[in-house]
Description:
Layout: E1 11-14, H1 24-37, H2 44-50, H3 55-65, H4 72-89, H5 97-104, E2 110-113, H6 118-127, E3 136-138, H7 151-159, E4 167-171, H8 174-183, E5 186-190, H9 196-201, E6 204-206, H10 212-224
Parallel strand pairs: 1-2, 1-4, 2-3, 4-5, 5-6
Helix pairs in contact: 1-4, 3-4, 5-10
Amino acid sequence: MSEIFPWIPAAVVFDCDGTLMDSERHWVDARAIVLRDYGVAPDEEFTELARGVHYTECGRLMAATAGRPDLADEMTAALLRVFRALVAEEPVTTPGAAEMVARAAEFAPLAVASNCPRDVVEHCLGTAGLLEHFSHVVVPEGTMRPKPHPDVYLRAAAEFGAEPGDCLAVEDSLCGVRSAVRAGLRVLGVGPRPDRESLAMADHWVGSLADSALLVWARSRALCGVAR
């Protein structure tokens, strides 16, 4: 069971929302709060479409759902404001995140690739005591496009001078898995209910970062790998 991946990644690149931090629920709540203010309740289709996408795209989806595409910028700003407030109240790591990050840092350099604003990612990871393990936090800035485009994963690999195919991405959403696969990284999928496309594209899937076989693999890599 220690051979989930029979190699040592040149770098491990983690998604943040839903993968390291249990903040996807904050996005769900923030979307519902903002939509409610515009007289709309999110349905199952909207919830699935919005999962993992960049917050600006989410704002456009919300405006379309409300029948007010002209309010996309306004609703995006409201979404981000409410989300930041919810995260500040309760930043919580996902099961197994702290141990998996610590173990992975023993055999490979680490980065975060996220669609969230940099300040949100750094605040969450800093509050959780995880930020110190990461050499780079990569978010869509400048000309970089958000997930599902490959840009953030390509940048993360380049920051380490590594080939994308030698790096491991850790992702929980279809949007993120698509991004990592398009960039050429191998993918560890995380989550209790993967959709069929994510499950088909990921190299391996676990229910959570607390998965016992995954931790055995991480410990085995640490024993034969070289820490940063």
